[in-house]
């Protein structure tokens, strides 16, 4: 499954690991994506979202109703 946050859109980034001898090798920075269930009162059911840690903070700040409305406005299926 893709490592993409449904709230913030966070995706893996790429960079380099630098050793003590300063050799550079490719590496990948993955977002902390978790699958969480939220109860949405307007829908009357729970929804399962793949959210990053920052996405959870966004839901806490703005509320699940506003976040779900934004996701649906983008045309994503929930």
UniProtKB/TrEMBL annotation:
GO terms for cellular component: ribonucleoprotein complex; ribosome. The keyword Ribonucleoprotein applies. It holds the Pfam family Ribosomal_L28. SUPFAM superfamilies: L28p-like (SSF143800). It comes from the Bacteria. GO terms for biological process: translation. Gene3D superfamilies: Ribosomal protein L28/L24. One of its GO terms (molecular function) is structural constituent of ribosome. Keywords: Ribonucleoprotein, Ribosomal protein. The keyword Hydrolase does not apply. Belongs to the bacterial ribosomal protein bL28 family. NCBIfam families: L28. This is Large ribosomal subunit protein bL28.
């Amino acid at each position: 499954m893709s490592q993409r946050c449904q709230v913030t859109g966070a995706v893996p980034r790429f960079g380099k690991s630098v050793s003590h001898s300063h050799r550079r090798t490719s590496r990948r920075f993955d977002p902390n994506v978790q699958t969480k269930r939220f109860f949405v009162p307007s829908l009357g059911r729970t929804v399962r979202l793949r959210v990053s840690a920052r996405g959870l903070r966004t839901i806490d700040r703005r509320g699940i109703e506003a976040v779900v409305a934004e996701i649906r406005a983008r045309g994503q299926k929930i």
